[in-house]
Prior knowledge:
This protein is globular. It contains 10 helices and 8 strands. It is an alpha/beta fold. The protein has a single domain, classed as TIM Barrel (Alpha-Beta Barrel), CATH 3.20.20.70. Strand 7 and strand 8 (267-268) form a beta hairpin. Strands 6-5-4-3-2-1-7-8 form an 8-stranded mixed β-sheet. Helix 7 (233-243) packs across helix 10.
Amino acid sequence: MIxxxxxLLTRKCNLKCDYCAIVKDYEGKPVDYPNxxxxxxxxMTTATVIDGLKRFKYHxxxxxxxxxxxxxxxxxxxxxxxxxxxxxxxxxxIISNNTPEVQPMIKRLFxxxxxxxxxxxxxxxxxxxxxxxxxxxxxxxxxxxxxxxxMDFVTDVVAEVTVMQENKHLLQSLITFLTAQGINSDITxxxxxxxxxxxxxxxxxxxxxxxxxxxxxxxLQHIMKGDFDVHMKKKLLPEIWKxxxxxxxxxxDRSLHNVSVDADxxxxxxxxxxxxxxxxxxxxxxxxxxxxxxxxxxxxxxKRDKMDLCKKCNHTCQLMSxxxxxxxxxxxxxxxxxxxx
Length: 341
């Protein structure tokens, strides 16, 4: 059963962070990209997204949906999508870079929807040196300031914390700071593109990966035992430690607990890997049979792509959905309101 659905609503973004490859050149990318003029070429229509949400709900009404980009706020129809989710009691969060360029779009979303169940912004440990990627610093600092401002309007406010080798020593201090601000955190570690098929991550240098070390182990143990707002920390952090630096097998070829939808409506092998057979053979319309079961075609395509293309990863979301399935947990366990538990 599918527990988590990752939606790449768009590949367009106002930033180019050094570890992300989703916004690299793609067919239909507008030539006036720097001027913030965006188009919907090669993207799902609003009707396609909503029809897909209906199909996922029929399959599992408790599925949790994560709306990614690129930058999802750049989709003008996002209020319509979120209003549908609110009306149908669909569990979701929106992951945004939350920078000033997208603040007008966030404001419009609040005005048109009223209620936003979940909102996440990328807040990374930031080094003060000239070599740190400017966009990564920008989204972390400016995104944090904006995140504090919207806490009164969103049920579930989350900081998505991505740890890299260069900043791993700052993890505990950042989590301490965010907790003091009343902000919950999801902790993940930078992943690596192990082949050209790993089109989500832009990292190819293994030296950037975070490996096991006594320093990191002590930080994670302190976070698990301490009074910190970190989602599913007692279940998730030990599993993250086991797979570092990038050695997770999600077993979605055995049980499809996690699905990723690309911007054009095709189904990816996973969020990390687009795949070859999967996006060609499976889309939102044929992912399920008429009775809401996963189509055997999807199982077959994913199994073949995983066997041919997967060299493992450390995708935290896959760990979450695997734990939810293994321990028979519910959607409430994916909402970041289980403070400090």
